[in-house]
Amino acid sequence: MLKIGVLGAGHLGKIHLRLLNQSEKYTLVGFYDPNQENAEKVTQEFGYKNFTTIAELIEETDVIDIVTPTLSHYECAKQAIKAGKHVFLEKPISNTVAEAEEIIALSKEYNVKGQVGHVERFNPAFKAVKDQIENPMFIETHRLAEFNPRGTDVPVVLDLMIHDIDAILSVVKSKVKNINASGVSVISDSPDIANARIEFENGCVANITSSRISLKNMRKSRFFQKDAYISVDYLDKICEVVKMKDAPEVPGDFDMILQNAEGVKKQIYFNNPEVAPNNAILDELETFADAIVNDTTPIVTLEDGTEALRVAYQIIDCFKK
Predict the structure, then answer these.
(1) Which strand ranges, in their side-by-side order, compose the sheet holding 26-32?
(2) Which residues form the GFO/IDH/MocA-like oxidoreductase domain (predicted)?
């Protein structure tokens, strides 16, 4: 089993610690948190070993799980990679695209693997339909959250929207052509609600809305492609696939038939795959272990995380125009 250590024992860090402690693919060595009071509290409550320096933790591990504030991702990753350790980085990969590109370069230089924590790729509803999303031409997403002071130090684009940016980039096999966006700061110093329209070179258009000041939580995406409509509810973990095919000459009594102005008839049918329940965070961590052991490409690469960050900053730049 791979020996892993966690940097950061905040809200998400404690979740990672608990799951890694249960994992059959890792041995949890311990953690480091710069807040000594918090570190001692976590050790007393859960029994995880608290290391007094990052260097000491890195020395004892094969893999470093970085769940620190985004501002410190680059320095933590650089220190771990230069010690020859594989790195898992919570999203976003780093504070700037330049830092992200340097992390990629270092990982290649020191021959280590890296994965970014874009957890929605492992959401069971998305996993259930991903293979059926083929050349979508219009995508609409809504990611709305009730207000929570945690995370408001960054724009909603980096806090919430980046989840959908990554998921969209993973299914649209085309380069970004143009971006238009607007954002509004309501109660934070940075935008709390934002909308972006991303146009791709192949003609696909994605319309993304994110808010952290909503009255209810919502995380939904809809994908439209030739002869199919696919919806994913990341929050309730359900999906729906509606497809169309040429109608039979003699429809059945319960067949759903549509006829357009030219007289072409199409039959609507539902092809909803089974959604297998899982723990998405544990899945992303354990598939990274598989990639290391089997020497395969991680599901969410450092390059993927960098591209999502690049698009996120292009959206943020639109706010300044």
Answers:
(1) 26-32, 2-7, 63-66, 86-90, 114-117
(2) 156-216
Separation CA 82–CA 84 (nearest Å): 5
Range with top average pLDDT, 131-145, 183-197, 236-250: 131-145
Strand ranges (E), the chain: 2-7, 26-32, 63-66, 86-90, 114-117, 138-144, 176-184, 193-200, 205-211, 218-225, 228-233, 238-246, 256-259, 265-270
Angle in degrees, CA 117, 121, 124, rounded to 5: 125
Max CA pair span of the chain: 75
pLDDT band at 155 (very low <50, low <70, confident <90, very high): confident
Residue 199 region, left (φ>0) first, then alpha (ψ -120 to 50), else beta? beta
- The listed CATH number (3.30.360.10, 3.30.420.40, 3.40.50.300, 3.20.20.140) that belongs to domain 121-277+310-319: 3.30.360.10
Please state, in angstroms and as integers, the Cα–Cα distance from residue 98 to each residue in 67, 103, 115, following that order: 20, 9, 17
For 243, the 3-state DSSP assignment is: strand
Residue 278 confidence (pLDDT) above 90:
yes
The answer to whether 223 touches 208, Cβ cutoff 8 Å, is: no
Helix axes 36-46, 11-22, angle to 10 degrees: 30
- pTM of structure: 0.93
Q: Which CATH number fits domain 2-112: 3.40.190.10, 3.40.640.10, 3.20.20.190, 3.40.50.720?
A: 3.40.50.720
Q: Name which residue leads in pLDDT, 121 or 264.
A: 121
